[in-house]
Specification:
Elements: H1 2-47, H2 55-70, H3 79-91, H4 101-104, H5 107-118, H6 131-205, H7 210-216, H8 229-244, H9 248-257, H10 260-275, H11 279-283, H12 288-305, H13 315-326, H14 339-343, H15 346-382
Helix pairs in contact: 1-5, 1-6, 1-10, 2-3, 6-15, 12-13, 12-15
Length: 391
């Protein structure tokens, strides 16, 4: 029986772990599939579009040729006028005139664009041009942004649990070290004396009887206990009630023979896992300074790695770029030469956005607490003092 029960316990443990991890894996997998489908869609629509050179493009070329022809040999006289004309001409130019769509809207380029859409970063260096692409971009963001926030909330619960447990363990370890030091200096000797006195008093005040001493000895034979008929009847009823309860082995046999009976409990547990999303973030109580330190270290690690393939970026520029990305500001002033490599960095972006999200949540809670204190303080100041009239 022991050999057969161990595999059953192992299978049940594996299934519990699977159904516990299932909601988190479901969210992440759905986001990955959504990003890949969007990349296929935008690469097909925007990458295969035809570039029609309009009249504005021809006028741009004519004006550029006219400015270059009228430029005199003496550059110092017409330098300022030449700069103003060129600046005005280039500001009216469109980027689509000089770029091949297939070079931008590759699969990885489209995937990078989809990630910037549903993460709400939106660098602005890649955007749809066709009317169908713009409509599909709005529809894609309408469903992708809530899905991304759901993933952030779900993964934020895991990070919040890890942070809270590690912080609590650190506090417990710190308190143990402090108490051990204080005990070694002040309290240990006195505590031992008090314990010994209490034990001696207990032994003196509560002596054991001879029957209790004999019962505690293993060699002493005990007489069989005589029961009355009423007691025997009560024991039989209790044993019958215990037999009516489903035992553990019976439940295993019923579950293995007919899995549909246990499927309801499994489904209810999965639904409970879905209902618990976001609860750990509400319970998180970690100092905001610790979260700021975690964000600083997290961004610094990426800023030290990113210049290895983005040679135009140094540590400060990479730190700025990572901060703008994780906070979903996304100015687009810093453009990447190799967004394909940065896509493999997407896990870093998602985890970093979750850390920033947790920090914002903690900051929001602190601000609400501060507002409550200020309002209660102002309310106490404005409360009129009660006047005591003489009788």
């Amino acid at each position: 029986m022991a050999s057969t029960s161990q595999p059953l316990r192992g299978k049940r443990a594996c299934k519990k772990i699977f159904w516990a991890v299932f909601p988190h894996a479901c969210f992440i997998l759905s986001l990955v599939i959504y990003a890949f489908l969007g990349a296929l869609m935008f690469s097909h629509i925007e990458g295969n579009r035809k570039v029609n050179l309009s009249e504005e493009y021809r006028k741009f070329l004519q004006n550029l040729w006219y400015i270059s022809r009228n430029l005199s040999d003496n550059m110092t006289e017409n330098e300022e006028i030449f700069k103003e004309k060129i600046h005005a001409l280039l500001s009216a130019a469109e980027r689509d005139w000089f770029v091949n769509p297939k070079d931008i809207w590759t699969f990885f380029g489209s995937l990078f664009f989809c990630c910037t859409v549903f993460t709400t970063v939106g660098y602005g260096n890649t955007y749809p041009v066709t009317r169908i692409g713009k409509y599909l971009c709005m529809l894609y963001a309408l469903f992708g942004i809530p899905l991304m926030f759901l993933v952030l909330t779900d993964m934020g619960d895991i990070l919040a649990t890890v942070l809270s447990k590690s912080y609590n363990e650190f506090r417990k370890l710190q308190s143990k070290i402090l108490t051990s030091k204080l005990c070694s200096v002040f309290m240990c000797n006195k505590g031992d004396e008090l314990k010994s006195r209490a034990q001696s008093k207990a032994i003196i005040n509560e002596p054991l009887t001879i029957m209790e001493v004999l019962k505690s000895q293993p060699g002493v034979k005990r007489k069989p206990i005589k029961y009355r008929n009423a007691e025997i009847f009560e024991m039989l009823i209790a044993r019958e009630n215990e037999d009516k309860k489903p035992s553990r082995n019976k439940s295993i046999e019923r579950w293995s023979s007919c899995p549909e009976l246990a499927r309801g409990k499994t489904m209810s547990r999965v639904i409970e896992n879905f209902d618990k999303i976001g609860k750990q973030l509400e319970k998180l109580d970690v100092p905001i300074v610790l979260m700021v330190l975690v964000i600083f270290v997290y961004i610094s690690c990426a800023a030290a790695i990113l210049p290895n393939w983005e040679t135009r970026l140094d540590f400060q520029e990479a730190f700025y770029f990572c901060f703008i990305t994780l906070t979903t500001i996304g100015f687009g002033d810093t453009q990447l030469e190799h967004p394909k490599f940065f896509l493999f960095f997407s896990l870093y972006i998602i985890i970093g956005m979750e850390i920033v999200f947790i920090a914002f949540k903690l900051g929001q809670d602190r601000l609400i607490g501060l507002y409550k204190k200020v309002i209660s303080f102002c309310g106490e100041k404005k409360m009129p003092s009660k006047k005591v009239y003489p009788k």
